[in-house]
């Protein structure tokens, strides 16, 4: 082509050639409208109690890239058959008009509802068209909003890390000095469980005015940091993460929602807030995405066994990558995240470090020696969740230190992951949220 060819003509010819070769989208394709957003409400038919059944029909099927908004219900206050949500929250000072109608609708179905081994009320499953076993599902968290202006945190002398079922328990350990509840405590709950109603709203304090906070106590405001404690895909056939190491299937054959595993589940990783992406291996056609156990704020560890349990509405976007990851991975604007899951906290740390080393070898071309060195000087390993027996240690690999090679493109965790056999020990716990 002549050097005198006008630039506009050159650009047009190049674009036409790329379209003809199938390398670029045609103008009509590029301008095509994205599919309409989908709304999934937390009606009784859309909510499952305590597990991830793999034979449950999808409540909705969406296309990859389609935006879906999902209502969730906190299980606190809606699962005691003899006490309605209005009664429960009324005892804590909540007006009847501030109790979600779908919470009451769910409660009314308890006598005839199937309850699996877990404790969570979960919305789903949502299927993603084209997802097949062996793929990876990318879950982008686009938005999270509170549905009510309050949440509940539960404490007891022997809850969370003070439970006698906690791996760190030793005979003779003293419980916390938490007084028993009054004689007129809410029926259906253990008398030593204290319910802390934590109201949320906009701060009026100088320096944080307008920001969403928990009004924890007089002079104490905790900034909200909303995330879904449970994000899961349908588990693999015949594979269970149980309540004790080495335990077999649950009596009903359905994976409990309490222990996290290779399917994700009750990860309680507070980093999975707006702007983050979670990558989970697909075990069933359509993936079957469940979510719930919504938290408005939680510290790493969730040490009492619960966060501020507060009903949220989440907006998500899904992508399907045609390779399997080695287990739950995640990323946000600052970090890539790897997770080690095991009933033994030391083992969970070791698994998280091993996954960090492998990630650095696979994605940054490091030797294992160099990757291990980098993990020791630059990767933060924290206890994300310590109270569901299969404990989660998250390693955060900082993105901003890789200034020469740049950031790995979005989705690289899934696209370049290697297929491996995930093995998560089995454990028991009844309090974790």
UniProtKB/TrEMBL annotation:
<dbReference type="InterPro" id="IPR004304">
    <property type="entry name" value="FmdA_AmdA"/>
</dbReference>
<dbReference type="GO" id="GO:0016811">
    <property type="term" value="F:hydrolase activity, acting on carbon-nitrogen (but not peptide) bonds, in linear amides"/>
</dbReference>
<protein>
    <submittedName>
        <fullName>Unannotated protein</fullName>
    </submittedName>
</protein>
<dbReference type="Pfam" id="PF03069">
    <property type="entry name" value="FmdA_AmdA"/>
</dbReference>
<dbReference type="InterPro" id="IPR006311">
    <property type="entry name" value="TAT_signal"/>
</dbReference>
